UniProtKB/TrEMBL annotation:
InterPro entries: cNMP-bd_dom, cNMP-bd_dom_sf, HTH_CRP, RmlC-like_jellyroll, WH-like_DNA-bd_sf, WH_DNA-bd_sf. It comes from the Bacteria. Gene3D superfamilies: Jelly Rolls, Winged helix-like DNA-binding domain superfamily/Winged helix DNA-binding domain. Residues 153-219 form the HTH crp-type domain. This is Crp/Fnr family transcriptional regulator. Pfam families: HTH_Crp_2 (PF13545). Keywords: DNA-binding, Transcription, Transcription regulation.
Length: 246
């Protein structure tokens, strides 16, 4: 019998794996700390490591030739970086960047990660389920940003970020939130004042404190909940909202 290296993790995707599949990964994993603005997947760059966050938040963004960023999706302890690898694609046109300081993750070299996927059809299947949830999130992001006013977009994004952390404090700059909801920084500042005036949040320099989550959910409406329900259907528990999965 093979001896499996035990891994203690808060990563929901890792914890949803079978013991054997988790063992294939944990044999080669190490725990690392990440800082805000660390790039864990570079656009069109070689991918040396794959990261399973235990906390914090990372954003997957498109980056234009003049450096303008637009968010495609976010993940934290619900997911894994470099999903292109699961599809046998070895680089991505998107950049993945850490957006919260103090993020920790379990890291594995790409070579070992791909070998584990090759050895286990059930591991590949589980990771493909995660790819599906990320695609649903990205599609929902695009629809929301195209059709909803900024305070609704911001409410939805804050709920998504809140789902992926402990506590009620989000350490985020106005500039970053603007990129995440496809808006100007001044527009985000106004939207934060609207949410604060409604006593849904408290906004301070570099941080947002969640005050009334149910009210934020009502404001977000149908814009929030579908990707989260898809994750719960395919992988396991995610979030702490009041929305049903029906």
């Amino acid at each position: 019998m093979n001896t499996r290296t035990e891994v203690r993790t808060d990563n929901l995707l890792l914890n949803a794996l079978s013991p054997d599949d988790l063992g294939l990964l944990s044999e080669k994993m190490e725990r690392v700390s990440l800082l805000r603005d660390d790039i864990i997947v570079g656009a069109n760059a070689a991918i040396d490591h794959v990261y399973f966050p235990d906390d914090g938040l990372a954003s997957i963004s498109t980056v234009t030739s003049i450096g303008r960023q637009t968010e495609v999706a976010i993940f934290g302890r619900d997911g894994v970086s470099a999903t292109c690898l699961i599809l046998d694609v070895f680089s991505s046109p998107h950049e993945t960047r850490v957006q919260m300081a103090g993020m920790s993750a379990h890291r594995i070299e790409t070579e070992h990660y791909l070998r584990a996927i090759e050895r286990s059809p059930t591991l590949r299947s589980a990771l493909l389920h995660y790819v599906q949830t990320l695609l649903v999130q990205a599609e929902h992001n695009a629809a929301t940003n195209a059709h909803q006013r900024i305070e609704v977009r911001l409410a939805r994004w804050l709920l998504m970020a809140h789902d992926r952390i402990d506590g009620d404090e989000l350490r985020l700059t106005h500039e970053f939130m603007a990129k995440m909801v496809s808006a100007e920084r001044s527009g985000v500042t106004i939207a934060l004042h609207v949410l604060e005036g409604g006593r849904m949040i408290k906004s301070e320099r570099g941080r947002v404190i969640m005050i009334d989550r149910p009210m934020l959910e009502r404001l977000a409406g149908e814009c929030y909940g579908l990707p989260e329900a898809e994750y719960r259907k395919l992988i396991g528990p995610l979030g702490r909202g009041h929305c049903g999965d029906g």
